[in-house]
Write a structure and sequence with these properties.
The protein is 83% helix and 0% strand. The protein is mainly alpha-helical.
Length: 167
């Protein structure tokens, strides 16, 4: 009977000592996890402050890139800001400017995407609709061009249609 109790207590001591060693390593991992979590949260706040700087000075950088014909930087800056904005009006402006840049660079499929995305935010923008009419007429998609031209005329019947777009 004495030996059974002794073995049981020995078993408990061994198990508790192993569990103490494991708990030490688990506590280190929890400490590292919590430190990394706090660092990532602080980085998010830091980048949000930096983003507000970008939002304030976007037009200065964008206009300087466009003047120098540095379209890659203008596109990268616009897409960065587009991903981080919440207001619809700003998204319409950014999408239409991205569409015009891609249109100027003759990437018409990407320009069409951005024009349509801007149109999804503001479906009554005459300039966007006319840009799409011009884009579709260049591509030879006369049905789409007529459809958007009729939509533009429904919104504003006083617009002047260029002779190259009249059907």
């Amino acid at each position: 009977m004495y030996s059974d109790n002794f073995l049981f207590y020995l078993y408990l001591v061994v198990v508790i000592s192993i569990l103490l060693v494991f708990s030490f390593f688990v506590s280190l991992q929890l400490k590292l996890f919590s430190l990394n979590f706090v660092k990532s949260i602080s980085l998010l706040y830091f980048f949000r402050e930096k983003l507000s700087f970008i939002q304030k000075d976007y037009l200065d950088f964008y206009s300087s890139y466009i003047v120098r014909f540095d379209y890659f930087k203008a596109i990268a800056l616009s897409e960065l800001l587009l991903e981080n904005l919440d207001t619809v009006e700003s998204k319409v402006i950014l999408c239409s400017s991205l569409g015009s840049i891609y249109d100027e660079m003759s990437f018409v499929a990407i320009a069409e995407y951005y024009y349509l995305e801007a149109l999804s935010y503001n479906s009554n923008d005459i300039n966007l609709i006319l840009n799409l009419v011009k884009l579709y007429s260049i591509l030879g998609h006369n049905n789409k061009s007529k459809l958007f031209l009729e939509k533009a005329l429904k919104i504003d019947s006083n617009i002047t249609i260029p002779s190259s777009l009249s059907y």
